[in-house]
Design brief:
Rossmann fold, Histone, subunit A
């Protein structure tokens, strides 16, 4: 059965590594073309985590409607299936208002799930199973990925062995359904015309920008944000608190490292994260890359606008 055509403006995707300037550019672009922004970020979904996730500022959020920010508490689990469904609903609502949906983020899996219309198996998290998997991984590092390679070679090829969360999720889906997650993640929902734009810049310049942003985050209150999360009794072991900016400074707050050590570790880890984002996004040949070196956000937005036109 041929799906009905998608009505409304085409989807615009703006992706790229962390700190490349996606947020500022997307806000300006949205103002130019009458758009609304849908976040494609696995970290900005959490409440109370603004500075460490480099969430859009209150001013940016007042200027343009943003969707799928602050949709969960740090101790809640938002699966890829739930995120994709919520993003599809937001995209339809934006189009229903006659505005342009702009999907913005650096989480490649989120971008692909939405832009390619993937149907993701809605298998609920199984805490006991995950605990058992995590304990097994601690006692035998690499064993989970080896098991995944046996039951789902395609998923194993796509998931880095050190990405334990995704390995466990793939095994969790297999345990509950008896089917590989790679066969369940199929294209289903029509998305319609899509323009995919990737922002890039000289690698050394990006790393300098990352280092500067870490210092700005610290000056902007990152340590107080970490303390506030712990004061709310969120467990240090939560996946949300093991993300960039939080795990490094939880160690500092706990007295396990100095401020200088935590800062250097966050800078290093963020640079490594940006490299992994590049690796993931470069696989998609449909992305049109724009070099943003030395360009102000207004000029980058103008270039994207020209591509869309």
């Amino acid at each position: 059965m041929v799906p009905p055509p998608v009505e409304g403006p085409p989807l615009v995707v703006i992706c790229g590594p962390t700190a490349v300037g996606k947020t500022a550019v997307s806000v300006i672009l949205a103002q130019r073309i009458g758009g609304e922004i849908i976040a494609a970020d696995s970290r900005t979904i959490y409440r109370f985590m603004d500075i460490g996730t480099a969430k859009p500022t209150p001013e940016q959020r007042r200027a343009i409607p943003h969707h799928l920010l602050d949709i969960a508490n740090p101790d809640e689990v938002i699966t890829l299936a739930v995120y994709r469904r919520m993003a599809a609903e937001a995209m339809a609502a934006v189009r229903g208002r006659g505005r342009v949906p702009i999907l913005v983020g650096g989480t490649g899996l989120y971008v692909r799930a939405v832009a390619d219309g993937f149907a993701i198996p809605e298998v609920p998290p199984d805490a006991k199973l995950r605990d058992r998997f995590e304990e097994h991984e601690r006692s035998a590092p690499g064993a989970l990925h080896a098991r995944l390679a046996t039951v789902d070679p395609l998923a194993a090829a796509r998931i880095h062995p050190r990405n334990t969360r995704r390995v466990i999720r793939a095994l969790e889906v297999y345990e509950h359904t008896g089917r590989p997650i790679s066969t369940l993640q199929r294209r289903e929902d029509p998305v319609g015309p899509t323009t995919r734009i990737g922002l890039t810049m000289d690698r050394d310049a990006l790393y300098r920008r990352i280092d500067a942003r870490v210092h700005a985050q610290i000056e902007g209150g990152l340590i107080d944000e970490v303390k506030a999360l712990l004061n709310r009794r969120y467990a240090r072991t939560l996946p949300a608190l093991q993300g960039l900016g939080y795990k490094e400074f939880i160690e500092y707050v706990d007295g396990a490292s100095s401020l200088e050590e935590a800062t250097r570790r966050l800078q290093r880890n963020t640079r490594r994260f940006a490299k992994r984002q590049y690796t993931w996004l470069r696989r998609d040949s449909r992305i049109r890359w724009i070099d943003v070196d030395e360009l102000p956000p207004e000029a980058v937005a103008a270039r994207i606008h020209a591509v869309i036109e």
